[in-house]
Amino acid sequence: MIRIGVVVALPAESRTLTRRPLRRGKLLAVRDTLHFCLSGSGPDNAAKAARRLVEAGCNALVSWGCAGALEEHLQAGDLILPAEVVNVDGTVWPAHPGWHREAVRYAEALPCRVSTGRMTASGGIVHGREAKRTLAAATGAEAVDMESGAVIHTATVLGLPALAIRAIADDAATAIPRSVLDALDPHGDTRLPKLVYNLARRPSDIPDLLRLAMAFKAASATLRAMGPHLHAPGKF
């Protein structure tokens, strides 16, 4: 029996999967064949969550959530189903071929653009056009996130199938406002009082923040549309 374990970094991303609240580091069994774990942001947290899911009996892993575009053809709300994830040192971790084909087949019926291009792993938030352009040139990737590499690497080491399902939340030209970056806690959650304070000091960040919020809304809609695939992933 296939038991899918889903690693999701942030509460806002987890709400595209379930209305039930997730506690960081704790597992939520939606059914015997589907478990979620809220990891917190970053590769270390993602790897720990992946191993918790495996220890609980999951034998297939998914990295779920948002990603940043590195190439200009990707827009907010586009779905990314990378055939492989590349680390900054050049190490490549492939998604499970059969599962990847099933996911792409499902996604092609959704009202969003789908890309299967390479994604890269990052240890921190990549923001700003120049930083994204440099990373794209170094890795050949068209999108980036902080957790998928750790999840797929963990699965590869353990001999398990894995898949990354991501939606674009910021395009290649988008710079995440400094007010937002400075308000993030170590787990990637936004400290609201700090954000309000920052915006009061930098009101010029407000338009960028609103654009980012609209982009996240588009990404969330795409993830919700892809969610049923986790309940019926087909044979792989």
Automatic annotation (TrEMBL):
Q: Which domain of life is it from?
A: Bacteria
Q: Name one GO cellular component term.
A: cytosol
Residue ranges of every copy of the Nucleoside phosphorylase domain listed in the record: 22-174
Q: Which InterPro entries match?
A: Hopanoid-assoc_phosphoryl_HpnG, Nucleoside_phosphorylase_d, Nucleoside_phosphorylase_sf
Q: Which Pfam families match?
A: PNP_UDP_1
Name the GO terms of the biological process aspect.
Answer: L-methionine salvage from S-adenosylmethionine; nucleoside metabolic process
- Give TM segment ranges: none
In Gene Ontology terms, what is one molecular function of this protein? Answer: adenosylhomocysteine nucleosidase activity
Q: Which Gene3D superfamilies match?
A: Nucleoside phosphorylase domain (3.40.50.1580)
Cross-referenced PANTHER family: 5'-METHYLTHIOADENOSINE/S-ADENOSYLHOMOCYSTEINE NUCLEOSIDASE, 5'-METHYLTHIOADENOSINE_S-ADENOSYLHOMOCYSTEINE NUCLEOSIDASE
What name appears for this protein in its UniProt entry?
Phosphorylase family protein
Natural source organism: Methylococcus capsulatus
What are the top taxonomic ranks of the organism?
A: Bacteria, Pseudomonadati, Pseudomonadota, Gammaproteobacteria, Methylococcales
